[in-house]
Amino acid sequence: MTEQSTIRNSLWENFFKKQSEEDSSVEHLLSSVPIFSQLAPKEILKVSSIIHHRNYRAGEYVFAQGDPGLGMYVIISGEIRIIYSDGTGGVKELACLKDGDFFGELSLLDESPRSASAVAETESKVMGFFRPDLLDLLSRSPKAGTKILFKLGEIIGTRLRLTDEQLGKLSAELERNHNK
Predict the structure, then answer these.
(1) What CATH number should be reported for the domain holding residue 96?
(2) Whole-angstrom distance, CA of residue 82 vs CA of residue 108
(3) What is the model's pTM?
(4) Which of 88, 137, 147, 166 has the smallest CB count inside 10 Å?
């Protein structure tokens, strides 16, 4: 893996991944996802009852860049590539995510257009947790909803700090190369 692909994947990796292979139940998988990791078992059961399951064929889009953001996804099995199109035909892979990883979580906060596409690299099973489900959970179980929102803020903050670090390194490297 190149340094650049390591940097790209570091923005997307599940920093707190702790899924064991022998237990792949929906509840166990949800509790291993950082956004849901602070929930009590009863709260995990509430979330698991509103999770949407979907299978994707290799090459099928989970969502396309520019689509409205509707929710986040957790990979049960398979591989999902996150790709960015620069609008001139150039496509960059930002990450290749696997079992237990999650993506699209920003859309739980707003419905802004997707900044990248998510495409199944292999046959994949995913769970979707959508913004209306979170809003409903917040009204029915404010404590659980608040826990999710705080973890979401923590994850976004961590990713933002990593992005700042990487931009700083890239800027310094560009400046060094420019001065040569």
Answers:
(1) 2.60.120.10
(2) 18
(3) 0.79
(4) 88
